[in-house]
Amino acid sequence: QVHLVESGGGLVQPGGSLRLSCAASGFTFSIAGMSWVRQAPGKGLEWVSAINDLGEPDYADSVKGRFTISRDNTKNTLYLQMNSLKPEDTAVYYCSEGSRYTYDRVFRRGQGTQVTVSS
Fold it and tell me: I need a labelling partner for 8 at 20 to 30 A (CA). Which of 23, 84, 96, 100 fits?
């Protein structure tokens, strides 16, 4: 059974940084494409970034140049380094299997991790 646990969120000032982690179990992480998605208050899910099994990243235009996705297959863990954070990045962040085109078919809402960007 797929199990994903997000962590690393918090309250940060505009321009600050956070590093999110997603611990994965229950499937073969090393061959899975993985995504980060987020949900802001009162809004729907928004895809943020993905990384394929070869380590090739993909980013939404809204985060390109500020966020970096990575993975450690030895630890079955997905990461999202977020720099130059903006108030509009405030959301609950989730990880999911899949690419930007497929994550919504398999997304299961876990606990997520809250990111709040505010002065």
Answer: 100
Amino acid identity, position 75: K
pLDDT in tens, 60-117: 999 999 999 999 999 999 999 999 999 999 999 999 999 999 999 999 988 999 999 9
The number of residues making up the chain comes to 119
pLDDT tens-digit series, residues 35-44: 999 999 999 9
* Residue 14: both structure tokens together: 């505009």
Query: Is the CB of residue 33 less than 8 Å from the CB of residue 53?
Result: yes
Per the CB < 8 A criterion, the answer to whether 4 and 109 are in contact is: no
Write out the two tokens for 26.
């229950």
Contact assessment for residue 39 and residue 95, using Cβ atoms and an 8 Å cutoff: no
Amino acid identity of residue 32, one-letter, is A
